[in-house]
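Run log // design_07
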């Protein structure tokens, strides 16, 4: 019975989430703040887990046609996210920094080598919220790619009582997107983690 419900959820939930995403996107008043220029060159792309409703849409607004993949957990909720992102032409790499880390990192490097951008939530899939894991940093340092940081603030929003304090902007509200390209060139792992974390916290909702 439980398995059947999961299968039904897998079919029904992603289209409904995608519909909600697009309704909020098209009804909101959006302003894009480029903290630093984000060109067409290949990036490793990051957003906080709690900002997943809008940040992938902002990514597709800026990089409309760029081939992309996202590191998504192998859990059921990860399957829902993967199916939803597929509707934005973002394919999934299943695994996480905790489960199947080696395999998913190998997939990520293959994706980058093929020309794709890789999207990662550094505090996913289970938190703690706004905690910087090694994955995005390690991929960026080894691949020598800049990082495309995506944050947003909504004037009016709902915030779920989940570990990531998931943010859902209310329809017809104002949403400010804060986008920047940063380089970690020459940094050691710990220094790069602290630097990226500080940049991602500058424009996020507390």
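design_07 sequence
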């Amino acid at each position: 019975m439980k398995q059947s419900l999961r299968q039904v959820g897998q079919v029904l939930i992603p289209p409904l989430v995608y519909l909600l995403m697009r309704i909020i996107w098209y009804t909101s008043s959006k302003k894009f703040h480029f903290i630093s220029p984000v060109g067409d060159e290949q990036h490793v792309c990051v957003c906080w887990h709690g900002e997943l409703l809008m940040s992938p849409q902002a990514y597709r607004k800026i990089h409309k046609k760029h081939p992309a993949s996202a590191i998504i957990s192998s859990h059921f909720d990860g399957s829902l996210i993967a199916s939803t992102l597929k509707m934005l032409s973002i394919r999934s790499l299943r695994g996480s920094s905790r489960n199947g880390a080696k395999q998913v990192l190998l997939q990520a490097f293959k994706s980058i080598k093929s020309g794709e951008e890789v999207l990662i939530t550094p505090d996913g899939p289970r938190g703690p919220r706004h905690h910087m894991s090694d994955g995005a940093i390690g991929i960026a340092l080894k691949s020598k790619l800049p990082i495309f940081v995506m944050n947003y603030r909504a004037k009016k929003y709902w915030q779920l009582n989940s570990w990531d304090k998931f943010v859902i902007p209310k329809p017809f509200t104002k949403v400010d997107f804060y986008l920047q390209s940063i380089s970690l060139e020459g940094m050691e792992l710990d220094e790069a983690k602290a630097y990226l974390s500080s940049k991602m916290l500058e424009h996020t909702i507390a």
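Residues 2-201 form a domain with the Cobalt-precorrin-4 Transmethylase; domain 1 fold (CATH 3.40.1010.10).
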